[in-house]
Amino acid sequence: MKFPGSVLASVFLFMAETTVALYLSSTYRSAGDRMWQALTLLFSLLPCALVQLTLLFVHRDLSRDRPLVLLLHLLQLGPLFRCFEVFCIYCQSGHVEEPYVSITKKRQIPKNGFSEEIEKEVGQAEGKLFTHRSAFSRASVIQAFLGSAPQLTLQLYISVVQQNVTVGRSLFMTLSLLSIVYGALRCNILAIKIKYDEYEVKVKPLAYVCIFLWRSFEIATRVVVLVLFTSVLKTWVVVDVFVNFLSFFLYPWMLFWCSGSPFPENIEKALSRVGTTIVLCFLTLLYAGINMFCWSAVQLKINSPDLISKSQNWYRLLVYYMMRFIENAFLLLMWYLHKTNIYMYVCAPLLILQLLVGYCTAILFMLVFYQFFHPCKKLFSTSVSEGFRAWFRCVVCACRHQKSCQLAEKTDQRSSEDKDETPSSSKISSVPSQILNADEFCSA
Fold first, then answer.
1. Rounded distance, CA 175 to CA 432, Å?
2. Buried b / exposed e across 291-305, counting CB within 10 Å, b at 16+?
3. What is the CA 160 to chain-centroid distance, rounded?
4. What are the residues facing 121 on neighbouring strands?
5. Distance between CA 45 and CA 159 in Å, rounded?
6. What is the pLDDT of residues 291-331, one digit of tens each?
7. Of the candidates 144, 352, 357, which has an alpha carbon nearest to the alpha carbon of residue 229?
8. CA-CA-CA-CA torsion for 301, 304, 305, 307, nearest 10 degrees?
9. Confidence at 358, pLDDT banded by 50, 70, 90
10. In this structure, are residues 218 and 359 in contact, taking their beta carbons and an 8 Å threshold?
11. Do the Cβ atoms of 133 and 4 come closer than 8 Å?
């Protein structure tokens, strides 16, 4: 049975970030910074409550008689209890014989064009561990993008405004960045397992490293760009965030309304229509929060029973990174034009270049992952290199067509100029000229 390392990582990041947030808010209170204290507590306690609700929802404890579990979740100790429960199940799995097992069928990734179907016995303990891993994966994503991402942006902004980075704040920003990167990594793994549910997916360590580097560069550069722009144009950053957030929030609903599908009723049997609507709104809220800082890797599809689109849409990926790169460049340009005396000793052109190169580095690691380390790359209809070759051929053909059109225009201009250059002082009779004009007219 696989060691539940992902559960341990999720609980560690959750507890460490919450503890440091409480300590940092106490330092803000002692310094008299009531606003920074309130915002730090808000971005810390709100995702904590959402994580507790997520764990209760996935394990369906709201409809079960478990008062102790509900009390621990109310005391914000739910993840610790769940982690303890996971390791109890893991330690007892090899000593207790399970009377009931279920058989699952998975297909292997094709090798040499052939794919075998394998059967695997799954006991009750392994099924419970799978449920716990799934719950903690979703909780990590919520903690990352509804808590750690705004928290990292806030703390970096405070450091820029105060021109001071304390030890507690630097530790807090490091934990927040790790939490966001880990949440984005869980998004990638979750997207792969949902899209290729019928296959046995095994992610190699180099794939994890590549995803970690991709997400680290992408999120770090995005947060720095937002902080720089906020430090000089506080009002306009609200407009930018609102437009981004509202666009990604409404996009899945617009696709759902355009499809004409009926309202989904199969999310959870115990939920009413209002409860289903609340869950869908929360999912779209989380989807918008993820895309605000990085590519979500999953496409929310409300009219699908799984709520996730299983098709690999390269066009959306390309459009997202192109638009995000243009937006980051524009925000940096606005920061450069309106920068204040805070950045007197900062080489602004070099900083802009570093941030743009950092974002391009993130895109490079993403392409490397999809080309070499994706666990299901053999199932792709087209690879990244084939896409680049096709794009290069299109560009070359377009350039050749443009050059040929330019050459044709030049030859037409020369021929028209040669026709217009007739000698005005010539004493040729008018009959041949009339015959020539008639010939030209017939040839035209």
1. 92
2. bbbbbbbbbbbbbee
3. 26
4. 103
5. 22
6. 999 998 888 888 776 777 777 677 888 889 999 999 999 99
7. 352
8. -10
9. very high
10. yes
11. yes
Cα–Cα distance measured from residue 161 to residue 181, given in angstroms and rounded to the nearest whole number = 25
Nearest Cα to 148, choosing from 184, 113, 117, 119?
184
Q: Which two tokens stand for residue 1?
A: 């049975």
Q: Which residues contact 10 (CB under 8 A, 6 or more apart)?
A: 79, 136, 137, 139, 140, 143, 182
Q: Considering the entire predicted model, what is its pTM?
A: 0.84
Distance CA 279, CA 281 (A): 5
Note the pLDDT of residue 170: 93
Buried b (16+ CB within 10 A) or exposed e, 33-48: beebbebbbebbbebb
Which structure tokens are listed for 126?
Answer: 């392994």
Residue type, 394: C
Residue 141 near residue 187, CB atoms below 8 Å: yes
Sign of CA dihedral 86, 120, 188, 206: positive
Contact of 285 with 174, CB cutoff 8 Å: no
**Cβ contacts of 230 within 8 Å, gap of 6 or more:** 153, 157, 237
CA distances in angstroms from 253 to 68, 246, 284, 300, 319, listed in the order given = 38, 11, 8, 9, 19
Q: Report whether pLDDT(104) > 90.
A: no
The torsion region of residue 32 among left (phi > 0), alpha (psi -120 to 50) and beta comes to left
185-to-190, 311, 343 alpha-carbon distances in Å: 9, 19, 34
Q: How far is CA 197 from the centre of its chain?
A: 20
| CB contact at 8 A, 161 and 341 | no
H or E, element range at 118: strand 117-123
Query: How many Å apart are CA 37 and CA 158, to the nearest integer?
Result: 11
Cβ count within 10 A of residue 239: 10
What average pLDDT score do residues 51-64 get? 79
Question: How far is 440 from 432, CA to CA, in rounded Å?
Answer: 12
Contact 356, 224 (CB under 8 A): no
Assign 97 to helix, strand or coil.
coil
- Return the pLDDT at 379: 74
In this structure, of 19-33, 45-59, 62-76, 223-237, the range with the lowest mean pLDDT score is 62-76
3-state secondary structure of 312: coil
- If residue 104 lies in a helix (H) or strand (E), which one and from where to where? strand 101-107
